[in-house]
Write a structure and sequence with these properties.
It holds the Pfam family DUF4007. InterPro entries: DUF4007. This is DUF4007 family protein. The protein is mainly α and about 375 residues long. It folds into three domains: about 140 residues, no CATH class; about 120 residues, Arc Repressor Mutant, subunit A (Orthogonal Bundle); about 90 residues, Winged helix-like DNA-binding domain superfamily/Winged helix DNA-binding domain (Arc Repressor Mutant, subunit A), CATH 1.10.10. The strands form three sheets. The chain has a three-stranded antiparallel β-sheet with strand order 3-5-4. Strands 6-8-7 form a three-stranded antiparallel β-sheet. Strands 1-2 form a two-stranded antiparallel ribbon. Strand 4 and strand 5 form a beta hairpin. Helix 8 crosses helix 9 and helix 11 runs antiparallel to helix 15. The chain starts with 5 loop residues before the first helix and ends with a helix.
């Protein structure tokens, strides 16, 4: 087994995106339609009418379903009727906070929201019931890759090695699935000037993936020798509040007491510095002024080692800072708390206690999906 955090941080899920990178409008549209179905959750993604409702093709419906889960905007649970094999999607509280009618940024017009989603995609939610990362290939390339310049073939090799070392043999995917992950990752973050006619949605992804504006990935050269470079630079469009939120959320799981060294925040696998491709000096430069504004936070320096210290629970501090940045969404009259949201959508609570379907039923659904793709 690998000494990385891959198995602890990420579920062994591969190529569930149908090679479509997330596009402008998808997440807001999905959240809006799911909310229309009320407090019991929604079987939207299993309906024959889903392509018409979402305004996309059938394979894109599967992709949208995956991305809403991967960004931790929905959680799914079995249908209450055991004879119905459809899974019910319930919107998470963070989805309502970001994408709801009174949310922070429903149409993702602020680049900070894309950074936030990028963090949610690559991280594991704090707590014993927190959802894991659902894109292990992404996790490997952002958190575990020992180099910044790499070809697609080298990405496939590196991801394959970590997957083989971190997961049981039964969870290791076919080589083609990892190849599709690499294809999707590059389409999601970089402007690929070479349109792949055999890749579904290749040209549209170039035009419609909002995550390209983060500037995390650049392509150099053409064909099989094309080099992909994960950039390390100051992030001018990354709001300090989003970065500090990510640092404090990471501290929930990995801090020692009421502090965590900035070096760990910048360099550890799974930490914000790796996710955002920022070095320690750049990370400090972004957050230090905001830290100075909060009585509960400070950055100390001892023998050249700088440490982020916090008084209070880091998760509560993280959300206070993030919510304040977006205009105090939670302070709106009647805006639900996370606890009220779970009471409204009991399916979110049921995920923790629901018995899993038997293996035969899961295999049947998998076979049906394969037949649909054929």
């Amino acid at each position: 087994m690998s000494d990385s955090r891959l198995a602890d941080a990420a579920e062994p899920k591969f190529a569930r995106h149908e090679t479509f990178a997330p596009r402008f409008g998808w997440l807001h549209k999905a959240h809006s339609e799911i909310m229309k179905d009320g407090d019991s959750g929604s079987d939207l993604f299993h309906r024959d009418t889903a392509p018409v409702t979402l305004g996309v093709g059938k394979n894109m419906v599967h992709s949208i379903r995956f991305w809403t889960q991967a960004f931790k905007l929905t959680r799914e649970h079995p249908h209450p009727d055991p004879s119905n094999r459809a899974y019910i999607a319930s919107p998470t509280w963070r989805a309502e906070w970001l994408l709801g009618e009174r949310g922070a940024d429903p149409y993702l017009e602020d680049s900070g929201s894309l950074w936030l989603l990028h963090w949610w995609l690559l991280s594991r939610e704090p707590g014993p019931d927190g959802a894991k990362c659902l894109v292990p290939s992404w996790y490997v390339m952002f958190h575990l890759a020992p180099f910044s310049k790499v070809t697609a073939a080298e990405m496939i090799t590196l991801i394959t090695r970590h997957v083989n070392e971190s997961y049981p043999t039964a969870s290791v995917p076919a080589a083609e699935s990892i190849k599709r992950d690499v294809d999707c990752l590059t389409k999601m973050y970089a402007m690929d000037l070479e349109v792949h006619t055999n890749s579904p949605g290749s040209f549209e992804d170039q035009l419609m993936s909002p995550f390209r504006e983060l500037g995390l990935l650049e392509g150099q050269g053409r064909g099989k020798d094309r080099i992909w470079r994960f950039t390390n630079r100051p992030r001018g469009n990354l709001p300090p509040a989003v970065l500090l939120y990510a640092c404090l959320e990471y501290a929930v799981e990995f801090a020692s007491g009421q502090s965590i060294s900035v070096a760990r925040l910048a360099n550890e696998p799974g930490a914000p510095g790796r996710a955002f491709r920022m070095r320690e000096p750049e990370l400090i430069a972004v957050i230090e002024d905001l830290v100075a504004e909060h009585e509960s936070l400070q950055i100390t320096d001892s023998l050249g080692q700088r440490t982020l210290e916090f008084a209070g629970h880091p998760q509560a501090l993280a959300w206070n800072i993030l919510d304040q940045h977006y205009g105090n969404i939670r302070a709106q009259d009647g805006f639900p708390t996370p606890e009220q949201w779970e009471q409204r959508f009991p399916g979110l609570l049921g995920i923790r206690t629901h018995p899993k379907r038997n293996q035969q039923a899961e295999q049947t659904e998998t076979m049906e999906l394969i037949e649909e793709k054929a």
